[in-house]
Amino acid sequence: MASEENTILTTIKKKLTSFGPAFFIIGYVVGTGSVTSMVVSGADYGLRLSWALLLSCFFTYFLIIAISKLTIVSGNSLLYNFKTHFGKPLTLFIMLAVLVLIISSIVGIMGIVTEVVVKWLSELSDGAIATSEIAVALFFIFILLVLFWRGKHASFLNIMTVLVSLMALSFVVTSVVVLFNPEMAFSALFEKKDSISETNGSIELVIAGLVGTTMAAVVLVSRSILVEEEGWKLSDLKRENKDAGVSMVLTFIISLAIMISAAGTLYVTDFKIENAIDMMNALVPVAGEFAMSLFAIGIIAAALSSIFPNLLLFPWLWSDYNETPRKLDKPMYRIMVVCIALAGMAIPIFGGKPIWILIASQALSPFVMPLITLFLIILLNRKNVMQQYKIGWAMNLALVCTFIFNCYMLTIALSGLSDYMK
């Protein structure tokens, strides 16, 4: 009996470890930004924007496959291929765009988590604990930099992943409760309402932010680094396709569950989200009086587990661009990390509405996606790059449709950000 149990456990472990990069994508995408976008989308528009989530996951699947195949066949990272075949200026533009996405994401995420923590501590202590958002932000930045400096972050990130998973599971359970609630018609979640709060952003901004957090340019650019780290070869192409499929299916299920939870608890009651802590009301049906604590702990974990990779990503990309080893103990890279981390002080110091700043930061991702997709299409059809592994008509059609979708999302993002700036 014990032998059978060991065999089963070994099989499960092998299955899980075979999807390494997939779980990185899920862990990165389903974080503070995703929770914020899905909750706001569900609370303000019900499930009317679920089409954007579905299409972004669908097209992201093809982009992941394309980037991974290019990396495996060429033996080089995405940015190195871009620099070699399209020149330094365009590659530097993409890197600069990714840096803007990284910094804006950290600004929004830290704004969300500091607001949630201050409110949570005040509620837990009945007002006895009154701390400032600046102090909270400095505390979290200090923790992240210490972990980076000492290089002992693996166990910490594993713990954060477990906490995020608990919050995600709570949203999934809540969505099931909502769907099987006999007192509510499912069609009600798709009904159009005119009672949207004036403090909320436009529907275009929400759509762009929703797509931006799912089809995240930062994640896609870093995909080639993960594939290189895994050491995948041509024999692993099928495994890579399966990995991409798992990542997008689970991302869609978890994100849709968050949206359903918000739609079934907030949208149907016309509850308007004004502050970050308001989002915890989407967990009340399952968590009850513990909803605030569960949400706060989950958001803290999601924030830290999202910010830490963001701190490392630009030095990684810079190393790839310069064809140097990814050794982050160099003084230049440490200075980069510290400067990027300090961007998290922006909202605590200067103020602003963190929910909409975070969604607006995610809405920036569609600005660079058409260029990345176009470059991928060109490279994947070049014989001197792909040799006999050039993509066929089906993959070309999928990527062309992805390019069209990205261009459409760019127009949506421009409209949404224009309204937001006004």
Automatic annotation (TrEMBL):
Any one Pfam family match given in the protein's UniProt record, by short name: Nramp
Record field: transmembrane: 21-43, 49-72, 92-113, 128-149, 156-180, 205-226, 246-270, 290-319, 331-350, 356-381, 393-417
Membrane topology: Multi-pass membrane protein
Localisation: Membrane
InterPro entries assigned to the protein according to its UniProt record, in alphabetical order: NRAMP_fam
Listed GO biological process terms: iron ion transmembrane transport
One MF term in the entry's GO annotations: cadmium ion transmembrane transporter activity
Keyword Membrane among UniProt keywords: yes
Keywords assigned: Membrane, Symport, Transmembrane, Transmembrane helix, Transport
One cellular component (GO) term of this entry: plasma membrane
Keyword Ribonucleoprotein: no
Protein's UniProt name: Divalent metal cation transporter
Lineage of the species this protein comes from: Bacteria, Pseudomonadati, Bacteroidota, Flavobacteriia, Flavobacteriales
